[in-house]
Design goal:
alpha+beta, single chain, about 110 residues, 5 helices
């Protein structure tokens, strides 16, 4: 199993951060189904101020770029990205792959 860590910034306002949290408390079932259908085993998002960090676990052989491109074409994914995009520092129309930046691991114990 492989772990990927990605990050993005949220709009730096308490209202945007609260709304982003609420959106994920009430995540649409189609979004969860889509994430799983492209091969992602688990996904967590952590917040520190307006910094969001996503941790994904995938099979070792999953091509994450292909998986994320497929995810972008699934039902309701575009609408979800537009909805949560209003709380994220991103350009209108950005896909999840374009918003979330892969972090480099610099230490492991």
């Amino acid at each position: 199993m492989r772990r990927l860590v990605k990050t993005l910034k949220l709009v730096d306002s308490p209202e945007a951060i609260t709304a982003y949290r609420k959106a994920h408390d009430e995540i649409w079932p189609e979004i969860v189904k889509g994430i799983r259908s492209v091969g992602i085993i688990s996904m967590e998002i952590y917040l520190f101020g307006n910094l969001a960090v996503m941790i994904m676990e995938t099979p070792d052989d999953l091509d994450i770029k292909t998986a994320m491109n497929k995810l972008a074409t699934l039902p309701h994914q575009t609408e979800w990205e537009e909805f949560v995009g209003q709380f994220q520092e991103c350009s209108p129309g950005d896909t999840s792959e374009e918003k979330w930046k892969l972090m480099e691991r610099v230490f492991s114990l």
